[in-house]
Amino acid sequence: MVTLIFLLILATLLAMIKGRRRLACWLFVASFLATALLFWHHATETLEISL
Amino acid sequence: MPMLFSLLAQFCIVAVCAVLLGAFGMQFLASELPCPLCILQRMGMMLCAAGPAWLLCRARKGAVDARDYAQCYGASILSAVLGGGIALRQICLHIAPGDPGYGEPMFGFHLYTWAFIIFVTVIAVSGVHLCFLPRSPERMPTGWSARASVGLLVLVVAANAVAVLFEEGFHLYLPDNPSGYRLIDDATREQKSSTSDEVP
Predict the structure, then answer these.
(1) B121-149 in b/e burial notation, b at 16+ Cβ within 10 A?
(2) Do the interacting molecules here have an ipTM over 0.95?
(3) B176–A1: do the CB atoms touch at under 8 Å?
(4) Out of B33, B83, B135, B143, which residue is the most buried by the measure of CB atoms under 10 Å away?
(5) How far is B157 from chain A (nearest CA, A)?
């Protein structure tokens, strides 16, 4: 999942470089939402790290 | 003014890349594996840097107007709000007195505290930038340094994608407290089990 989000960000940057405005915009929104959803997942479950 | 805007956008990208490379250095030199929240903060920083990178890419194609600036720095501010929330969540996890925190502190603060400071700075810089939008479309100089800064960001994102693939393996999520590279561990375990099956 994390690797896929990194690939999504990479695709966003490549779309920006290629000048594909609309595609870059949609990919940015998708990356943002995927990051927010992953944060939601990790924020709502207890992190079992040594405090 | 366009030259100053171009330099500021490049500085934003290079500064974020430097922080990401520093975190990368801590991961490999100090063998400090990033936790899921650390990885999420890295993503937030990359999305923050994508705003100025987008502006430079648009400037390469022609004149940029106030709408272009607003879209690119608006994207940066949104990403910084998300990243700041993630960093704040991790600060709150370790805020209890006597808590040693996650990982080793750097210059007196833990990496997630530095991340929060960086996200707040991104919001402030983007806000200042948006106060000085051009009244009419103007050409922004984009030389080799602009191309190099965007290229550096692409390389940093690609390197992080490879590193996180090794850490996550073919699992859905990262472990809460990572202790090794799961892709290598899984492969080694599989190899061991196949060799033990062969022995009569």
Answers:
(1) ebbebbeebbeeebeeeeebebeeebeeb
(2) no
(3) no
(4) B83
(5) 6
